[in-house]
Amino acid sequence: MDRLSNLPNHILSDILSFVPFKEAAKTSTLSKHWHHQWQSTRNLDFNHLYFANRDSNGDVQLQPQIFIDFVQQFIANNNSPIMDKLSLTFSQPGDFQETVEKCITFSVDRKVKHLKLDFSDPTWDENDLDGLAHPMFDLPQSFYNHQVLESVTLFSCKFDVFGFKNFGLLKSISLGWIELKVSTVKALLANCACLESLSVKSCWDMDSLSVCGKDLKLSSLVVEKCHFLDPSFEIEAPNLNYMKYCGTVVLFTVNGTSLEEADLDFGPEFECDESLGDSLYQSLNGICPTRALTVCTYMLQVIPMGEEPTGMEPRLNVTHLTLRTAMHNYEQGGIRFFLNSCPRLETLTIDIDRSRRICNEYRPPFEDKFEDLWRSSAIIFRCITQTLRKVEIKGFKGTPNEVYVMLYLVNHARVMEKLTVITSSEESNNRGPETFRSIAEQVYGFRKGSENLAIEIV
């Protein structure tokens, strides 16, 4: 018996609203009863890539007219009084401005709370923002009539920042693929009194970044792959507890915050020298204290090249450290640096991806080989013997360096309670998950420094 189809339509609408839009549309093939039921979903995702084809060479061929016809028909036939979310992704809106404006007006009429307008081109290179032509879609006046908008994403859009004064309930803003001046950011913060989350991605010609205000409610700040004319951050937001940065090396000045978690990824930086090691040291010093810290393979390679190669002074207050690493020999100095810098460390996550970039011009600050450190009993960090209780290793492939680190932790961590090893699901050098798991299981035979250690291999 088909019990699901016998549910009232409003219940089915609730269920379909929790399903991705593309998957909800597939239910139209189930039966006549379901043919139009999916159109009652309150979460709309109009994406031109859903209507694309691939040619014989595998290249994506967009079909803008077919996509626009679908959007027009859906809007014309939809009678729902309220929508929760609407996402419109369309990289060639110039010839179809009228339809796009109708879609935006539809979102206003249906009291959409979460709106995403993405007019960026998927062929754009986020690592070469200066070398692209960036046509912006000029948002119509109807956009500023939203009265219940709580979150908005605007990619490749031209907007009037002062129009945001109308968004009294707006809590989250995400901007991308636009020219973004520091004055625009300041105006957004001033006009959106309830703003809790700000994200900027692939923006260019940013003078710098200033997020300051004693009355700011901002709790989350994300900056990804932007081009800065002045690589400096000034942050003074009393409620900020999460910050993520991905880009070239910048200097952070963080004051008066309650920062709990920081995620730093300097992978897009191509330079590699001692001065950048000092800059990374200053940036790290600028965002602390923070309890949870994530660092990248670039930082593991470069930060020991500075004037302080062995650790931070004063030591960090980090209790949860995540190392995004390739487990390359060049990173062993950085791993040593952070273990030495975190004497209160309780949780260590080692996220392994061997495709992460290794600096070609790198000059190791230590002559020791990778295995020499991890096989030695001479260097035992304070956190290893006194505070470290939980370790998780992700993407384990059983390379010698991975085994050395795992052996070191199991041998010397005296209070560790849980070690979780998650083996990689990828094939590598004619070896697969079964081989990775077999190597990981060697840990059961290691001498354990903690009597209470439980080991799980996934």
UniProtKB/TrEMBL annotation:
Pfam families in alphabetical order: F-box, LRR_At1g61320_AtMIF1
UniProt-listed InterPro entries: F-box-like_dom_sf (IPR036047), F-box_AtFBL13-like (IPR053781), F-box_dom (IPR001810), FBL13/AtMIF1-like (IPR050232), LRR_At1g61320_AtMIF1 (IPR055357), LRR_dom_sf (IPR032675)
Source domain of life: Eukaryota
Signal peptide: none
Record-linked Gene3D superfamilies: Ribonuclease Inhibitor
Domain F-box, chain residue ranges per copy: 1-49
Protein name (Swiss-Prot/TrEMBL): F-box domain-containing protein
Record lineage: Eukaryota, Viridiplantae, Streptophyta, Embryophyta, Tracheophyta
